[in-house]
């Protein structure tokens, strides 16, 4: 059923019994490993017919031994979330494009476009001690909110729930407008209550630094993604530490509604008035006061400084998944560090992302 849903979404999907193996279509670069984690490895490959360079994320479907020698099971809920999110994002230039899926008895191979520009954290580490300039920041904000507006909108109604620096990659180096939102292992549908200010989720999957006040209170919806986008913009403007670790005191001031005093600190003197206004909107503590992604693009004038949009992809066939979004399952770890319920599955390790 899952492979049929992928085919319906316009993805080239090959189940285990159709006779088309990954190696029949692509030449795998066995030395070109881009990353490896507990549940997946990411490698380079080349299309045999066209020569196009792509990436393949191989997810294990059976019990296996991880790099630390531990026996672990397949993270099937995260896998289902990942596929559902990538399918929902098809057609938008700022969501990682899933090209093909090849299934075997022990693994699932996800063939995607390659992001040679690395992720936003890597970019900011290279820029230290500075962050992005104001024009690049407005472009980053516009395209990130555009990807979220696409996911949140009808008929998808999908919340990403783990927007952060490491999950924003770039098709080419220094091309901020060609950002790609990745890693949908924590995404969840809110189609059962698609109201703008609805709070259908009680799980706290994701990273605490980017968590909105209502997310830590275990009653949140898609607007928690907007808060996370605001945190991303703040960090991209302020710059990152040498070790890449989060500025926890800054996040606490934001959640306490004290953004004003944070922005008055001398180290933020270079923030433009437009950026400050955007942060005040995206980081509004009260959910009804925080705009949706679509409204933010319409109402925040600073975002209009963006350069031209990248070329749009042809719209995919309408996606009605044959498999529903993953059901909510208890989680042993939450963004607050305490045990609690969680939808989907734990966030994949950073090493698993497509570099």
TrEMBL record:
Annotated segments matching region Disordered: 304-355
Q: Any idea which UniProt keywords this protein has?
A: ATP-binding, Kinase, Nucleotide-binding, Serine/threonine-protein kinase, Transferase
The record ties this protein, via SMART domains, to: S_TKc (SM00220)
The answer, when asked if ATP-binding is one of the entry's keywords, is yes
Q: State which residue ranges cross the membrane.
A: none
The Low complexity compositionally biased stretches are 330-346
Recorded hits in PROSITE patterns, A to Z, give: PROTEIN_KINASE_ATP, PROTEIN_KINASE_DOM, PROTEIN_KINASE_ST
The record's annotation in InterPro entries points to:
CDPK_Ser/Thr_kinases, Kinase-like_dom_sf, Prot_kinase_dom, Protein_kinase_ATP_BS, Ser/Thr_kinase_AS
| Keyword match ATP-binding | yes
Q: Name one GO molecular function term.
A: ATP binding
Residue ranges of domain Protein kinase in the record = 28-303
Record: residues binding ATP: 57
Locate the compositionally biased regions of type Pro residues.
Answer: 307-329
UniProt lists the family membership as follows:
Belongs to the protein kinase superfamily.
Protein name per its UniProtKB record: Protein kinase domain-containing protein
Species: Pyrodinium bahamense
